[in-house]
Amino acid sequence: MRLAAENVSGERGGETVFSGISFVLEAGEALTVTGPNGAGKSTLLRVLCGLLPMAEGAVSFSGGGDAFPDAGAACHYLGHRNAMKAELGVEENLRFWQEFLGHPHLSPFEALEMVGLGDIGHLPFGYLSTGQRRRASIARLLVSYRPVWLLDEPTSGLDKASEAQFAELMGVHLEDGGLIVAATHLPLGLTGARELRMGQVQA
Ligand SMILES: Nc1ncnc2c1ncn2[C@@H]1O[C@H](COP(=O)(O)OP(=O)(O)OP(=O)(O)O)[C@@H](O)[C@H]1O
Questions:
Q1: Which of 122, 156, 157, 203 stands the most exposed, by the fewest C-beta atoms within 10 Å?
Q2: What would be an example GO MF term here (predicted)?
Q3: Per residue in 10-65, pLDDT tens?
């Protein structure tokens, strides 16, 4: 499998935020996207999975067969926001996402166990602490299989132990032939990851 970006530009509010972004990522590889606030890291992730239109250039995904014919289908997007309903139970939220995203992988309970939240799946998501919310959102990556994980500041709010646990989960995903693109200001513990440094903030 391979994700490629060729000379991609992104816009927000009609203004160019970045341009000329190119990379090729193969199965088992990770790319960290770094740069100052406002450089366009989140915008790039959203462009890669088709949540925002691309101003110029091309994004392609190949090798995913009928199940993952293009980047939109192949990408699991973990944004800044957790995208969970506060009034629904944690497991209920994960069940919703599993049905929505398809390609079921771990059960919601198993996924919560993997992030150390196996005992609180019955609680409303809104009751969880900031770090627990992030961990429950990370569990979303495990309930449905998608080969490309697009992660926006994935470890924000996590304690050291949870950071290490997540680094392990990312390592397993890469060993299984997955791909990861992660926007971050912090080291993620991804050994061998390449780095894409995005430029200066647009005036
Ligand atoms: N809806 C919008 N309309 C206009 N401009 C926007 C919109 N959303 C974001 N921007 C601008 O686009 C630029 C890039 O934002 P983006 O969130 O991609 O940056 P970032 O590199 O992820 O920043 P951070 O490190 O702070 O998360 C910023 O200057 C931001 O103000």
A1: 203
A2: ATP binding
A3: 999 999 999 999 999 999 999 999 999 999 999 999 999 999 999 999 999 999 99
In one letter, which amino acid is 28? G
Q: Which residues of 141-177 are buried (b: 16+ CB within 10 A; e: fewer)?
A: bbbbbbbbbbbbbbbebbeeebbebbeebbeebbeee
**Please, which residues have CB within 8 angstroms of residue 85's CB and are 6 or more apart in sequence?**
93, 96, 125
Residue 164 counted as domain residue: yes
β-pairing verdict for 75-78 and 148-152: parallel
Each residue of 98-111: pLDDT tens digit?
999 999 999 999 99
Domain total of the chain: 1
pLDDT of 187 strictly over 90: no
Q: Does residue 203 sit within a domain?
A: no
pLDDT confidence bin for 191, thresholds 50/70/90: confident
Could you tell me if residue 182 is inside a domain?
A: yes
C-alpha closest to that of 21 among 37, 39, 38, 1 = 39
- Answering whether pTM is above 0.90, one says yes
- Report if residue 202 sits inside a domain: no
**Domain containing 37: what range?**
2-197
Cα–chain center distance at 93: 17
CATH number at residue 116: 3.40.50.300
Residue whose CA is at the smallest distance from ligand 1 atom 31: 38
